Amino acid sequence: MTNPTPQVRLARPQALGSARAGGTPITAGADALFVYGTLRFPRILSALLGRVPTGTPATVTGWRTAELKGRPYPGLVAAPGSTASGLLLSGLTAREWRVLDDFEDNEYDLRSLPLDGPVADGAPRSGWAYTWESPDEVRPGNWDPDVFAARVLDTYAARLEAGG
Questions:
Q1: End-to-end distance of the chain based on CA atoms, in angstroms?
Q2: Element (H, E) at 125
Q3: Which residue range or ranges hold the Gamma-glutamylcyclotransferase AIG2-like domain (predicted)?
Q4: Checking phi first, is residue 91 left (phi over 0); if not, alpha (psi -120 to 50) or beta?
Q5: Residue by residue, what is the 3-state secondary structure of 6-61?
Q6: CATH classification of the domain holding 123
């Protein structure tokens, strides 16, 4: 899958201890993660990380938050003319990056994406995002966080809170 905008495609660097090691080390902005799906919900972040990192509203053009076949969560896929909304999480620790890498399966790849407009004072204009890499699973519709919150969030979060 090709991205309509320039970006950097890297695995998490060994310096942060990821199972996806081997990429070029990340320097400035290493703690900025663009989240667009289940990770934008405080209850999910709390279940995974034991806290809710600071999140700033953000968008990325040229991508969409796609529904995935048979899955309650979305995938971020390249889509010219589309814009994906989410949050830019900041202040993530190396341990939290490892937890998030473990949470995201191998069908996601971590990429640095340019963010739209000014995000906040001192915030980077790019952020890391887990992008979906299995095109056969992508549905034509966009994932709806309100539908997820109403129908799935409680069960999904309870499973994570129980350690599964």
A1: 31
A2: none
A3: 33-144
A4: left
A5: CCEECCCCHHHCCCCCCCCCCCCCCCCEEECCHHHCHHHHHHHHCCCCEEEEEEEE
A6: 3.10.490.10
Domain count along the chain = 1
Above pLDDT 90, what percent of the chain?
69
Positions of E strands within 28-74 = 33-35, 54-68
**Exactly one of 67, 96, 104, 161 is catalytic; which is it?**
104
Of 92, 38, 83, the closest CA to residue 59 belongs to 83
137 is catalytic: no
| Number of CB atoms found within 10 A of residue 162's CB | 8
pLDDT in tens, 9-48: 333 333 333 334 333 334 334 568 999 999 999 999 999 9
How many Å apart are CA 73 and CA 34, to the nearest integer?
Answer: 15
Contacts of 163 (CB under 8 A, 6+ apart): none
Amino acid at 150: A
- Residue linked to tokens 């990056």: 97
Cα maximum dimension of the chain: 40
- Please tell me the pTM assigned to this model: 0.80
- The residue range of the domain holding 146 is 8-161
Task: Give Rg (Cα) of the chain.
Answer: 15
